[in-house]
Design goal:
With about 180 residues, the chain is mainly α. About 60% of the residues lie in helices and about 0% in strands. Helix 2 packs across helix 3, helix 2 packs across helix 4 and helix 6 runs antiparallel to helix 7. It is flat. The termini are far apart. The relative contact order is 0.11. The model has no long low-confidence stretch (mean pLDDT about 85).
Length: about 180
C-alpha cells in the first residue's frame, strides 16, 4: 500500500494514473476535457492543480479512489496529534500493543468455535478489530515525522535505549576480570 501520508498531491495523481493504465488522452476523454488539461495536472506546470470539483471526475475517469485515499490520509494526519517516537523501544511497544489487540480478536474467534458467530459476537469482533486498527494507526503516526524525511542525513534515526557512544567491551575481556 502506498504511503499516502507522505505523498504530494502530484505523486498521488501520477500514481492513480499509473494504476489505472490509462493515457492522459483517455482520462481527458472520460472527463470531457482537453488532454492538455490532464497533462498540465500531471506535470504541475506553475502550480496548476485540479479544482475540488475535478477530484471526483478524475477518480471516476481513472476508475480508482487513490486521490480520495490521499485526501483522507492528509486529513487524518491533521486531526490526530501523536508525538513522534523518541526511540525504538516506543515503536516496539506500540507494535506489541497492536499484536496483543489482534490476539484479543483471535481469542474471541476461538471462543466462537462451537457456537458460531452471532450478531452480538460480530459486533464485538468489529469493535475489537477497530481497536487493532487504532493501535496500528497510532504506531504509524509515531513514525510519521521520521517517514517525512527523504534521506537518513536529514534526521536522527531512532536508536535503542543503549548509548551508541558507549564503548563496548569485547567478550574476551570479561574473562580477565
Amino acid at each position: 500500500m502506498p504511503d499516502y501520508e507522505n505523498m504530494s498531491w502530484l505523486e498521488a495523481l501520477q500514481y492513480a494514473k499509473e494504476i489505472s493504465g490509462l493515457t492522459a488522452e483517455e482520462i481527458a476523454s472520460r472527463m470531457f476535457v482537453k488532454p492538455s488539461v490532464v497533462r498540465r495536472y500531471l506535470k504541475n506546470d506553475g502550480g496548476y492543480a485540479p479544482g475540488l470539483d475535478k477530484i471526483p471526475l478524475l477518480c471516476l475517469a481513472m476508475n480508482n479512489g487513490v486521490l480520495l485515499n490521499w485526501i483522507e490520509a492528509q486529513i487524518r494526519i491533521c486531526s490526530i496529534s501523536i508525538p513522534p517516537a523518541k526511540d525504538r523501544a516506543e515503536v516496539l511497544t506500540a507494535v506489541a500493543e497492536a499484536s496483543a489487540a489482534l490476539g484479543d480478536v483471535q481469542r474471541r474467534l476461538v471462543e466462537t468455535a462451537e457456537t458460531g458467530i452471532d450478531p452480538v459476537c460480530a459486533r464485538e469482533l468489529r469493535s475489537l478489530l477497530e481497536d487493532v486498527i487504532l493501535v496500528c494507526q497510532r504506531c504509524q503516526l509515531m513514525l510519521h515525522t521520521l517517514a517525512q524525511k527523504r534521506y537518513r542525513t536529514d534526521c536522527e534515526p531512532l536508536c535503542s535505549l543503549a548509548d551508541p557512544k558507549k564503548q563496548r567491551i569485547p567478550w574476551w575481556k570479561f574473562w580477565k576480570r
